[in-house]
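ugh ok so i messed up the first submission bc i forgot one of the chains. this is the corrected input, ALL of the components this time, i swear. 849 residues overall. if the numbers dont match what u have on ur side tell me asap before i send this to the collaborators (the ones from the other lab, u know who)
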Amino acid sequence: MIRKSFVLIAALAAALSLFAGTASWAGQSLMMATTTSTDNTGLLDYLIPYFEKETGIELKWTATGTGKALKLGERCDVDVLLVHAPGAEKAYIKKGFGKDRKEIMYNDFVIIGPDSDPAGIKGKSISDALLAVKSKQAIFVSRGDDSGTNKKEKLLWKDAGISLPDKEKWYVQTGQGMLASINVCEERKGYTMTDRGTYIKYQSQKGGNAPLKVLVEGDQILLNQYSVLTLDPKNCPNAKYDLAMKYLNWMAGENAQNLVRDFRLLGKKLFIPNAK
Amino acid sequence: MMTARNRIFEIRNLAHSYNGRPVLLVDDLAFERGSITGLTGPNGSGKSTLLKLLGFALKPSQGEILFNGRVQVPYSRAVRSKVTLLTQEPYLLKRTVFDNIAYGLKIRNRSADLASHIREALDLVGLDFKEFSQRRWHELSGGEAQRVALAARLVLKPEVLLLDEPTASVDVKSAKLIRNASLQAKNTWGTTLIIASHDWHWLSEISDRQLHIFKGQVVSAGMENIIPGPWAPSDLPGLVERSLGNGAAIKAVPPPTPGMTALINIDHIHFKTCDTHDDSVDENHLTGMVTRLILERKTGDILITLSIHDIQLTFKFPSNTISNLELFPGKTITLCFSARHIEWI
Amino acid sequence: MDFLLSGFIKAIELLISGDSYTWSAVAATLKVSSISMLLSLGAGLPCGFILGYFNFRGKRALRTVLDTLLALPTVFIGLLVYAFISSKGPMGSFNLLFTLTGIAVGQTILAFPIVAAITASIIENIDPGLKLTLISLGAGKRNTILTCLWEVRYGILAAAVTAYGRVLTEVGISMMVGGNIKWHTRTMTTAIALETGKGMFSNGIALGLILILIAFTVNLSLSFLRKK
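and heres the new structure output, hopefully the right one now
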């Protein structure tokens, strides 16, 4: 009896693996690396079915940090990128990894902090706010993970003429995602920079009574530009350049731009389309 | 006489060692087909190793073992299920009693009439087929497990049955059933039995021959006539002695090489029931109480065990040489022999 | 704390409603763990057996290497496998990146040392009386080996269960090699990571509970086998 049952289990497992082996995709499909913000906000889940329906191309995506997304493209493991790090993207094309870059949409970053605002940054310009944080030695939480958001934050310090804090006691580098970092920030009653989408999520989780409030916003430098990037066929001859171009053009097209404009996260607008 | 034809086993220049430590050294030894051989000797003397080698469960470090006139090695077809070994602590396969006994038959593709063979084997060891055949390996007492293990070997109708202390750790009833079943195998199928045991009575009663193994060597005389060590240099020049714990000692001429075993040559032993004095320095007088007298039925020899202070010594005499001594357990006697008559092996 | 209760309720809802997103992750998890278990058992049992049964030069060194491999972090294995199957890697032409097969390869590397090391020590610790008994009952070499394996089946089952637990719960390999692609390579664990990243803590709890339920079912059916 026992022997029979063992054989049965082995057979079942074998059948399962066969089933798994046949589950590969036939037909046109495109592999994209993107940043967690587009995935976590639900934008892609909302948008991509329209793309697949209109073009017949299946789009699969893996959501990771911008750094890893660019790396995946460089190694030709994906066909197209949707990222938000304009500086790095331009350098990427220069190095011969990327070919076409199309700006699609933007959202913005905000500085949040406790209602009590110990450093008194509310309403200040971004540079003044950061200077105030530094001089008051107020807690500032950073992602510290070299993600697109983290890159942006570093840029803000540089722009304010402050050398990048690292080992300072008041500068907390979490190495985690945005939401986890906001939670750390709340626990430590500090300030942090976040994309607005994640902040909206955080706010809704707290039932509209979030201890952390938006204190600085609207500065031109706080805009967060998303672009579609195709890969240079010279570097990646096997990447599906033609399908990637179709995707790029579709995203920049009127239909997709309207869809982006209509997208709501918890009832709030998140992305502003700006394809030219 | 043992002819070449009726030798079931022959050992030639056998030496076995574990991790470089020699444990058994047998130059030349044969076993007669259909005979019963008793193996005695202290724990760790090499009995189990000899049985494992004869059972072709071990490959000897040196030398060879012939079975039915041909050199054989572990796993060779000529010995499989013909030579079988039962160890002191039986190992039962993790299945039912029925499947344990069926195992040996199944791997030989003798699956016909399985149930009746197993019923027969269980009968031999006094276990009821209906009650026991479907029990699981862990649902048996120690004695029952040992009997199932024996049944698993008997069902093969083996040519040789090697038993290593088969009754040492079982209850009285199981021991008796095991003894009977082993004998019945010999009587029914002519199975050759080689039995290692501390049960002197049993061995002397049934065996055709007894071999004593001591420190890895076969002492043909049997377990008797050996004086265990330790031997230390004596105050007397040119002698060694074995202290008896009360100031007295057995004196002997020193062994050619250290570590050898002392054996009394009984032909030179004199009995004295009263004290007379022979004052030569190398004369031994051993006074002790007779604690055991056993008749070895096959040979007619008598085994006498003497308790001398803190040691027990056993001597074997032909019955006629001691018939006039009127020995009985509890009687005190004195043995006299020269230090020169202790031989070293 | 509030999300624990809502997570529990959500888990029941997801199971009852047959939520296709959840089931796709469950299916991916089962497929990939089955393949990796088959592969790691197929390779690990013989290797463990050889290491435990035979004596040969360098055996100790091999055991030490194997025991060290037990400590491989999943993220590291993920990175290692990625390096090989990335399209610029030596095995790029097999197109294994972002597939379940790719994850299975990584999980096999994770589970193999567990299966092999536990099997080896089980075989090493086999009662010496077993081999003696089998020889005494007339077993040849092949039968001796097969019966030895069968005798320690419960121990080997435990090795498999341990390895399965590790494979079922790892997230590093699935994330790095699989890419957490919705409907394709999103497994239970990467889905939990994603939901947590999105701040949907109760969803994460729900998926976690379902994963535990899977593990429980597997172990329950194995313990049923054991009893018989």
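quick check: The CA atoms of residues 235 and 241 of chain B lie 9 Å apart. that seems consistent at least. The helical segments of chain B are 47-54, 97-106, 114-124, 129-132, 142-154, 172-189, 200-206, 319-322.
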